[in-house]
Every structure is written in structure tokens, then in C-alpha cells.
Write a structure and sequence with these properties.
Layout lengths: L1 E4 L6 H7 L16 E5 L1 H27 L13 H9 L6 E9 L2 E8 L6 H16 L8 H12 L8 E4 L5 H16 L4 E3 L6 E3 L4 E3 L8 E4 L3 H4 L3 H5 L8 E3 L12 H8 L9 E2 L7 E6 L9 E4 L2 E5 L9 E5 L10 E9 L2 E10 L9 E3 L1 E3 L1
Parallel strand pairs: 2-19, 5-6, 5-9, 9-10
Antiparallel strand pairs: 1-2, 3-4, 3-16, 7-8, 11-15, 12-13, 12-15, 13-14, 16-17, 17-18
């Protein structure tokens, strides 16, 4: 893997905006095509294999967590236990997930799994692909995200209840809306009838005990870019148990085990010394250098990097009351003060491509940059 400087397209802002990418720049640059990462094919194949192997390991971990009633360890409310188990036993479908990898010195290490509400999908599937067509269309990327999304929505169509598939996110996030509209467009290309509704606008029909949209239509199928752990502590979530339509949620409730950093110690327990894993525990008495992570934090919030008892990096945030895990420190590769994380996408059951977020610190946060990649 190499980091290579290059010249951005003269009209790159217009080019990405024509693709519907409206959050390429905020108060700091987000999309950055002044640089790209170059991979050899053997490196891509290793990332692809790692993604497939970790997915199998994660499915095993879900079964283990359910069989051993580990809900409290994952800070999952007890009233959701039966619902989660049912969603697993009934094989409620998943559409996607993103493994975050550190790739350094030929080693791939899992940092965490964004299994419930991963973003940067549109950048990975569409924006960097069209950049490549302008940069050098004779080259390739690890990127079959778009094709696999359409194919898997077509497959999932048979799982859905008759009627609409609603797509939902919060109102005031252009990033979330862009990702949701992209997923919805892929579903429509797969022949599924869809409708957008913001989470804020989902209604509850008290008389019939069903979720409804703004037009009063029942919501029987719902893709939600909205975390399960938030729903579990809201009135909205409590209504799930008395919903007469038994609305099918994508992502499914069993993903609560995988979108949670308590997964990391569980994987280490199930697969000790696995080359794709870093040692991880619920106690901090076994590691000399480690990263302390709240089990439900997002976007690099409330992270501590500690070595030899000294805190090297500490980030702010509102997480931590739910508990922490301690993961062996394996620092990101340093390209002259730029630290890349590889997001490896899983669509359905298959590895589908990568996106790279680059930061100026060892903690990847909400001001990281998305940069494209090329297979040489």
C-alpha cells in the first residue's frame, strides 16, 4: 500500500455535485482527491479474504451471544432479548456492514465493525469510481459495491412483506440522507417499491397498533439509518413489541451484537490469537498499551490511547456510561502524519469493496477525509 500525491480535477466540485454528493466540503475538506492509495492485487485479495473470514466469525459470535444470554454484557435492555433472538432464528436479512481495518506491515487487524448504521457507502461505491474513470479508466478498484447492492436487494425482495419498503434517517443530516437515498435507488433498480420517510415523521397508529408514514400507510418494511441502541431506549422502540404488523427492520435487531464494541472481547475469547484480531478485554489489567473504547461510541468519541500508563490521545464525547472495552494498541500506518483506516464493505454475505478514511491523528473521527484508491 502506497500513498500517492496527485492533482485534483479542475472541476471536481461540480463533478461530484452532479452525482448528488453535496457534503464533499464542510468547515474542513471531506472528499480529498489530491491523494490516492495504491494497492497491489495480492493486498486486495488479502483484504477480501479477511472480510469474508471475519463475517463468518461474527455470525458465530452472534449465535454464541444468544445461546449464552450475553445481553447485559452488550448493554442491551433485557426486554429486547426475545425480540433479538427471534430476528436471528427467523433469519431477518441484512444488507450491509463495514469492517474497519488497520493494514500495516503486511498485517490486517480488525479495529471494529460498523454493522448497523455504517456511512461512507456512497463515497465508496460511486464517487471514487467516477473519479477513477477521469483519473485513469485503464486501472481498477476493489469496488463492486453498486452491482452487489442491486443484486442483494433483488434477493431480499422475497423476504419483504407485500407493499412498500420505507427508507428512513434523521432529518438534519445530509450525509445520512445521501447514503439512504443511494440505498433506496439501488432497491428501486432491483424492482422494489420504496418511499422515504424521516425517522422524526414515523407515526404510531394507537388504534391499530402499527407504524404509519405521513400518508397514513402502514410501515411493514423499514430500512433505517438509525441506531438500534437509540431505538431501544425510546418510546418508538417500545412500540416494536406490540406492533401488529411485526415490521421487518433492515438492519435487523440481531445486528445489535455486531454494532457494539463488546463484540471485540467476545471475538478474542472465541478466536484467541487469531491473526486478524487484536487482543481485547473488558478489564484493563492485561495490556501494556491499549485503546480504551466505550462499547457504543461513534465517530471516534471518548477514545483513550494509553501506553505504559500514559495517555497519548484522548477524545471528547458523550459516551462511556454503558461501559468500556480495552483493545491492544496497533497504531495506524503513518504516511507523513496521515493515518488511513480501510473500511471494507460487506454487501449481503460478500466482500464488495473498500473506502479509505484518512486522519491527521491516530483516532479516526468526524473530520477525517475520504480518499480514493487504485489497484496497480
Amino acid at each position: 500500500m502506497q500513498r500517492i500525491l496527485t492533482t485534483p480535477r479542475n472541476n471536481w466540485q461540480q463533478a461530484v455535485e452532479q452525482l448528488g454528493f453535496g457534503f464533499h466540503t464542510t468547515n474542513v475538506p471531506y472528499w480529498d482527491e489530491s491523494v490516492y492509495y495504491s494497492f497491489a492485487m495480492k493486498e486486495i485479495l488479502a483484504i477480501e479474504d479477511a472480510t469474508a473470514e471475519l463475517w463468518d466469525m461474527c455470525l458465530h459470535a452472534v449465535q454464541h451471544a444468544i445461546d449464552n444470554n450475553l445481553y447485559a454484557q452488550f448493554h442491551i435492555p433485557s426486554q429486547f432479548a426475545g425480540y433479538i433472538k427471534r430476528s436471528w432464528n427467523e433469519d431477518n436479512p441484512s444488507i450491509y456492514g463495514r469492517f474497519d481495518f488497520c493494514y500495516k506491515n503486511g498485517q490486517i487487524k480488525l479495529l471494529e465493525f460498523n454493522a448497523d448504521t455504517p456511512t461512507s457507502l456512497y463515497e465508496a461505491g460511486i464517487i471514487q469510481w467516477f473519479w477513477l474513470q477521469d483519473f485513469d479508466k485503464t486501472k481498477d478498484q476493489f469496488n463492486s459495491i453498486h452491482e452487489k447492492l442491486i443484486a442483494h436487494w433483488r434477493y431480499l425482495h422475497t423476504y419483504l412483506y407485500p407493499g412498500l419498503l420505507h427508507f428512513s434517517c434523521v432529518k438534519e443530516s445530509l450525509e445520512d440522507l445521501t447514503n439512504v437515498e443511494y440505498l433506496r435507488d439501488c432497491a428501486m433498480q432491483a424492482g422494489i417499491n420504496t418511499r422515504l420517510i424521516y425517522v422524526d415523521d414515523i407515526g404510531w397508529d394507537i388504534s391499530n397498533h402499527i407504524f404509519v408514514d405521513m400518508a397514513g400507510e402502514p410501515i411493514k418494511n423499514l430500512f433505517k439509518l438509525y441506531p438500534w441502541e437509540w431505538m431501544a431506549h425510546e418510546q418508538f422502540g417500545e412500540n416494536i413489541f406490540i406492533d401488529r404488523n411485526s415490521t421487518l427492520f433492515i438492519e435487523p435487531a440481531w445486528k445489535m451484537f455486531l454494532s457494539n464494541k463488546a463484540l471485540l472481547p467476545l471475538l478474542w475469547q472465541l478466536y484467541p490469537n487469531h491473526p486478524l484480531l487484536l487482543a481485547a478485554y473488558f478489564e484493563n489489567d492485561r495490556l501494556f498499551s491499549y485503546v480504551k473504547k466505550p462499547i457504543l461510541s461513534r465517530e471516534g468519541a471518548n477514545i483513550e490511547i494509553v501506553t505504559g500508563g500514559e495517555v497519548l490521545v484522548q477524545t471528547d464525547g458523550d459516551y462511556g456510561e454503558e461501559g468500556h472495552i480495552y483493545q491492544e494498541l496497533f497504531t495506524l500506518p503513518d504516511f507523513e502524519g496521515n493515518y488511513p483506516v480501510i473500511g471494507s464493505w460487506l454487501i449481503g454475505q460478500q466482500p464488495a469493496g473498500i473506502g479509505i478514511r484518512e486522519s491527521n491523528t491516530l483516532v479516526t473521527n468526524n473530520v477525517s477525509r475520504f480518499v480514493p484508491h487504485v489497484i496497480e
